[in-house]
What does this fold into?
Amino acid sequence: MIDRVNHVDWGALVYLEMFVAGIAAGAYAIAAILELFGRGRSPIARAAHLLTFPLMAIAGLLLIVDLSRPERFWHMIVQSKTLFPMLKPWSPMSLGSWLVLLFPAFAFVSFVDALVDRGMFRLGGWRHGQTLHGSGVGPVWAVLGGLTALGVGIYSGVLLSVSQFPGWADAPLIPGLFVATALATGMGALLLFTALGRRTEPVDLQDLARASTMVIVWQMLLLLLFVLTMGRTGFEVFLTGSTLLAIIGAVLLGGIVPLILLRFGAARLRPGTAALAAVMVLIGGFLVRYAVVMGPQLHG
Amino acid sequence: MEEARGFYTDTTVCIGCKACEVACKQWNQLPSKNGGAHEMSGDSYDNTVALSGTDWRHVKFIEQFSPDRSQQRWLMMSDVCKHCVQAACLEACPTGAIIRTEFDSVVIQADVCNGCRYCISACPFDVIGINEVTNTAMKCTLCYDRMQANMVPACAQACPTASIQYGTVSELRQRADTRVATLQAQGTQAYIYGKEDVLGGLNSFYLLVDRPTVYGLPERPELPSRKVASNWLIGWGSAIVGGLVGALSLRKSRMDGRTTEARDAEEVRR
It folds into this structure.
């Protein structure tokens, strides 16, 4: 591998997009799991349905603005000269573009479903009490949407780790770390949403706190393995300057602090404590994205 | 389909005149850097520094001196896009902007590229850059427009020492093999970089006299697609474990919750 002079210039817009899309992907995947347990209309699942689509809309916008020619964003999906679909499954960027298109489509229906369930409006037989989620079709929709969500959580990691840049190319666990971060931050966002909600049920908070604890542990384990497997080049690239600080920050703020808060507050978790832990998880997830995306670029 | 065409660059006869760089810039109407402001890199006679979206030819100057400076050697090499038979950029491009032409060269269509910059990360040779005038990714086209008119690419036409030679790849390889044999007979450790072992063969290949890394070339470049499947597997593996961990916790919580609710209900009944 050679030193790079030409940079991809994937800066703040990109790691912010990966962070936001990760939250959406993680939250939707958790809602899908709840649906499979027959809890598709539970407050936690509904919180995920309400959060996911707006977050993906923001993520899509960030991706478009980051292009050097934003007006040509549709070239990712449609061949500009023939108008045939443009898909290369072997290219993570191409497959990722389709996932970023498909996942919001599932998320949009779930978003509308959540609004209908709240009685905000009705569309024919689609009304409060007769919604997609929680019905017989709900699990099918949740599984398909959940798979596209996880695909969104994974693809950005694959995209980086198959590149030719020293650091990214040396860290094979980036896709695993990214999807773990997506689940942790998705869970964190739901915890925050639930903790700040007016109709918070203690059992919902306890549910989320216990699940969050386990997912945070998984994310921290992946972060440790990511560091251990990156090799000498990875050490030079990631464990220096602001990326080293970001990784330390991710371990402290995104791992140790929320684990302590959730663990010690487990017996009778207060909404304020849960909200604080959730904010810490989100900050930690953001720092992970920053460190992984910027490390090789700052190093060069 | 025409026979594959390309460049054979014999680095042993390059004199570092940069006529190729000038001819390329002139023919392809490529802009200067920083509005033409004169900038010295401090790196030998090299002020172009690297291939980029506006520099499609780059003459490298490699100064090799022994510690006591009693022995010295200058290596010069005119670098360019390799027009790989297995092209990583073409494989990665999500818009279809990068195509393979009838001459087996690899060209970026400026009217299709949307500047996602993924090809930059995919190229193992660091050839592609963003052209700040068009805001699209750009690189050498092997003078596709000239080739269609049966003309020699501008750089090869301008090269005064025939360091850059243009032709059909099969003929160029024969010429290169003969030259390698001659140099080896003279005691020079010459070899060809870019035979079939490098990405299926480089249509723009080089005669070198030192290790590839000395010239800033990768020893064993690889296609990104070789790692794609394993990376997706790692991602899905983590997703399954993370999802299961979360799912089991949620399920256990619900069960515990139900047990508590049942106990509470029983107490109320009493």
Remarks:
- The radius of gyration of chain B is 27 Å.
- Strands of chain B lie at 5-10, 58-65, 72-79, 98-100, 106-108, 129-131, 136-138, 164-168, 191-193, 204-208.
- The longest helix of chain B spans residues 225-269.
- The mean pLDDT of chain B is 92.
